[in-house]
Amino acid sequence: MALCSALRPPRCRLRPPPLALRCPVTTTATPWARKEKARVSCSLPEPSWEERLANAVTPLWRLPYQEQLQVKYESQRKTLQTLASRLEELGIDAQKPGELCCPLQPVVPSPIINGYRNKSTFSVNRGPDGNPKTVGLYVGTGRERNIVCVKANHLENISSKHKQVAQCYEEFICQSPLDPCILFHQGGHWRELVVRTTRSGHTMAIVTFHPQQLGQEALSTQKALLKEFFTCGPGAVCALTSLYFQESTMTRCSHEQSPYQLLHGAPHIFEELLGLRFRISPDAFFQVNTAGAEVLYQAVGELCQAAGDTVLLDICCGTGTIGLSLAHRVSKVIGVEVVEKAIEDAEWNAAFNGISNCEFHSGKAEAVLPQLLASWEDARPLVAVVNPSRAGLHYRVVRAIRNCRAIRRLLYISCKPEGEAMRNFLELCCPPDPRKKLAGEPFAPVMAIPFDMFPHTVHCELVLLFTR
Questions:
Q1: Which of 101, 238, 304, 415 is catalytic?
Q2: Residue range 172-185, pLDDT digits in tens
């Protein structure tokens, strides 16, 4: 299948890594790293903390970009081999040439290789120098009790703006008399920082704070000090578009559980993508590589083979980026998303861009979709696109898709196809099973295309096309 010209690999010229970081990987389990570790001499010096972090977060950073793409291709090939083998166990003759379940296209490269992330999450913990208010990313694990927080200044995938905001946040909490909150039961207050940016030049910072036993007056004082630092103090250099504050007593907390409090600026930031303008809330999902998302969505549009009378079902739609970018090709878009604020963004995005053939439903897909499809009587062709989290789709969602005869074409977008998504693939393709209420005709994988949305890491987005 021919893809649009936007999928042609860009010419890439990477500067070589700094000499101090040209050492073997020691904290990653990639096959390349294991071979490299065995190859080098044991007499090399211990890696620096910066190198250990680079190894953990961006384990392919030493490789030229074309070699990174080859590593990822081999990983996706093994995933499709595993899927073919698992389907064989179910009595499905799925093996194609190369022992794959379907043809695998080359990895589509990212248009941007360095500093591509539009969202970064920084933790607060003890650094290599003993500073308990270091803002960075973790090396080590909680299970091993060897966590060290290392500044991310040297990481290739994080933009300079994100690093600047993280540095300023560290400066602020270091001058604060309040302790960091490393373990909830040990007290402390200052927690993680999330930075979101757009190509329009907007920057949103979200500070998470554990209130412990502080009263409202003390909380108001801390919020005022944080706002002053980023608007009038040293942090003003960050030129934040939005500054949010969230009081959270949990590891992760949604807006519904504990509202994001706007301390300064605009409530949203905005991004341009494929000629459309998108509004982004603090916790709304948006592909982390904007330029890569444009290439991905263009390909999804072609793979859908949507005609003018097609209805597009966009499951786990986030702020509506996929559905809205394809709305001009189809007669109707139906989006489903669990994050309520993201649905508000999607509806605003549709209205602002003058798109009137979209409807969005807020709620868990496993609750919304079965009701939506159970009474489906529309004669128009129905194409489904699913883009779930790493946890994959709930079984009830897969069952609703299987049992809806109108869905003949399905695109599954996964950033971790070897994980829970593999379970979904098998549920979509297995023979009908009355015990599991899978009465619909099974799907079959017909094409797989990996997209490198995460240069320097081992991950990519795999688009798997199923038909029946």
A1: 415
A2: 999 999 999 988 88
